[in-house]
Write a structure and sequence with these properties.
Blueprint (H helix, E strand, L loop, with lengths): L18 H19 L7 E3 L2 H4 L13 E3 H9 L4 H23 L7
Antiparallel strand pairs: 1-2
Helix pairs in contact: 1-4, 3-4
Length: about 110
C-alpha cells in the first residue's frame, strides 16, 4: 500500500537539523500516541538507568536510580529537549512503541 504525502507549506527546508532533535520529536510523538490509547501511561513510574543518566548533550540532569513518572520524563524531553529523558522513555516504552512504529511505517518498520 503506497502512502501519498502532499506538502502544503515549508520553511527553511535546506537547514541542517541534528538527528537527535528528530529522534526526540519522534519519541515524543510515539509516547503521545501511546497515551492517546492509554492515558494511565503518564502516571507510570520509571527508575532512571545508568545509561540515561550518562547521556551527553542537552539534559534534564537525571540521576541513576531517581524515580519519576512518564509525564515528568515527557516534560523533560519536550521543554529542555533532554536527551536523557528521551532515552529513558524509549527504554521504558520500547515494547509498546514497536507497535506504534509499525502503524506509522507500515508492516516492515525501519523506524526502530
Amino acid at each position: 500500500m503506497a502512502i501519498r504525502v502532499t506538502l502544503f507549506w515549508s520553511e527553511d527546508t535546506l537547514r541542517k537539523l541534528y538527528r537527535a532533535s528528530l529522534t526526540k520529536i519522534m519519541t515524543a510523538h510515539i509516547v503521545l500516541r501511546l497515551v492517546e490509547d492509554d492515558p494511565e501511561i503518564l502516571d507510570e513510574e520509571v527508575t532512571v538507568s545508568a545509561v540515561a543518566a550518562e547521556i551527553i548533550g542537552t539534559s534534564v540532569e537525571l540521576r541513576e536510580g531517581e524515580v519519576g513518572s512518564v509525564r515528568d520524563l515527557l516534560y523533560g524531553l519536550m521543554l529542555p529537549s533532554g536527551n536523557d529523558a528521551s532515552m529513558e522513555l524509549a527504554v521504558h516504552l520500547v515494547e509498546r512503541a514497536y507497535h506504534v512504529c509499525i502503524q506509522i511505517d507500515g508492516l516492515d518498520s525501519h523506524l526502530l
